[in-house]
Amino acid sequence: MVTQRDVARLAGVSVRTVSNVVNNFAYVSEETRAQVQRALEELDYRPNLAARSLNRGRSDLLALVLPLDVPYFTELAAHVVDEAEERGYTVLLDRTEGVAARERQIMMRRDRSALFDGIIFSPLGLTEDELRRWAGNCPAVMLGEIRVEGFDHVAIDDTAAARAATAHLVSLGRTRIAAIGHVERPMGNTAAHRTAGYVQALEEAGLPEIHATVRRYQRQDGREAMERLLDMDEPPDAVFCYNDLLAIGAVRAVLARGLRVPQDVAVVGFDGIEEGRFVTPPLTTVVPDKKKIAELAVTRLLQRVDGDQEPAAELEAPWRLMVDQSTTGAAGAGA
């Protein structure tokens, strides 16, 4: 095995200088760095990552624990992996599908937490008490649905985004605008903020609220909720859905009744997933900046790994309303 001593001998520098280059420390001149780099390549030097991590007291591993049955999180995960790799970290992915038993198995084992320098996660099934008991086992940043005091959390302004999406429907002259999604849950959560934004827009317009609750955020749930709404004596002429999967299911239900989207029922989604661009008609949707969410989450987590003791923070990423054919009947642009 080629050692740093071998590289130092070929490059004509000290072992310490080789170590500084391998670990990408700044205080090495460009000329010396290039000299060492040529020697590394010529000898095909491969660092002993396990030994390096042991010496630093770190594994250089991050855990990403998400419900990957939701496409939004699948797309977000790709950005998290990219951001972590740029900082020299490897991400190990655990899928929970929002099942409490699976989340408990992953999060509550102290020996498992010790494998990672930090964890980015989005719990859907764990209780607030369970999360508080777990806090401190490992540096952590939360994403998505649940907000719990004491944890850093990265999200968008869901209330403002939902208000804008609903106001868009109001601006089109729709007067019976329903919401498909959870109305309330025991912990503070994303759905509650989206409900608040929906209600604010309707109150400003003097229009009634029409709620259709769902148990999950899948396509079939959106279809079933839309069918219930269409069975009302006065069905809605527009729906705001709490994610794009619900919106895709809602579109399917409207079309199955022989009605038209958006002429009879306009549909707005949330999350900006790629699938929404390929349904007929393409979805108008709130698009969170997933890349920025990943950047904020990884940056904050690594600050915690480095010993940052600042109070937990709510970090906000940008979003935009992308208007498309499910509300206007013609392709549009971000608002």
TrEMBL record:
Looking at the record's lineage, which domain of life comes first?
Answer: Bacteria
Matching entries from InterPro entries are given as: HTH_LacI, LacI/GalR-like_sensor, Lambda_DNA-bd_dom_sf, Peripla_BP_I
| GO molecular function, a single term | DNA-binding transcription factor activity
Q: Name one Pfam family in it.
A: Peripla_BP_3
Alphabetical UniProt keywords: DNA-binding, Transcription, Transcription regulation
Q: Which Gene3D superfamilies match?
A: 3.40.50.2300, lambda repressor-like DNA-binding domains
Q: Which residues form the HTH lacI-type domain?
A: 2-56
Amino-acid biosynthesis: present as a keyword of the record? no
Q: What is this protein called?
A: LacI family transcriptional regulator
Query: Native species of this protein?
Result: Nonomuraea mesophila
Q: Give the source lineage, highest ranks first.
A: Bacteria, Bacillati, Actinomycetota, Actinomycetes, Streptosporangiales
